[in-house]
Please model this.
Amino acid sequence: MKALYFAWVRERIGKAEEELSPPDRIATVGELMTWLREKDEGYAAAFENMKTIRAALDRIHVKHDAPIADAREIAFFPPMTGG
Amino acid sequence: MSCRVIVRVQEDMFDAAEEAAKLTKNRTDLGAVVTFTGLCRDESGALAALEIEHYPGMAEEEISRVVAQAAARWTLEGVVVLHRFGLIRPGEPIVLVVTASLHRAEAFEAAAFLMDFLKTQAPFWKKQHPTDASAESEPGSGAAAWVDAKAEDDAAAQKWRG
Model:
């Protein structure tokens, strides 16, 4: 699946997007964050406080318990500050 | 008459009056047009510029979903929502909401609803570039910082759910 990162999540990870191939045991958005956090210290910093991180699956806001199974695109970002 | 909807996400400036006229042109039945423009303020001289990042594709789609909610809740004849991204200087417009209806209550309430939900739902993020009296105030030179989401904005959106 394609992963997109925005704002300080993007800055801490050091890239705007990448292709992810999580193992089959990773079933939800929250589990994917926990898995990503182990990759390196940039990811660890981005997902340090996971409850503040928002996620979207195929461009729709989802909660952390949402299953990632059929999603083509996942995005992680801080709470929005537009308007 | 169905509700005319215009949603745009763009880097360029916009003209609020020109956009509002798109809803009112050749109409004699409308009774109210509310136009809200959100501006970039200079934070008492501390801000050189805002840099707005967005999620291309989702930004337009999420705004459209919020507009659909407003159109389901109030009888609206037209809605325009424009949101800018990129570098925005103090005094420049950031966001535009225009609502048109037969009577004022719908237009006022829908415009407030749209702004409250755009702030908490639409995927945009603001970064503040501070002015620096001792150096050039070009964005990127100072310690730019992401704007934190405000609890009061969440509360403003929440009140519509009550």
Summary: The beta strands of chain A are 2-5, 17-19, 54-57, 60-62, 73-77. The two ends of chain A are 30 Å apart (CA to CA). DSSP finds three helices and five strands in chain A.
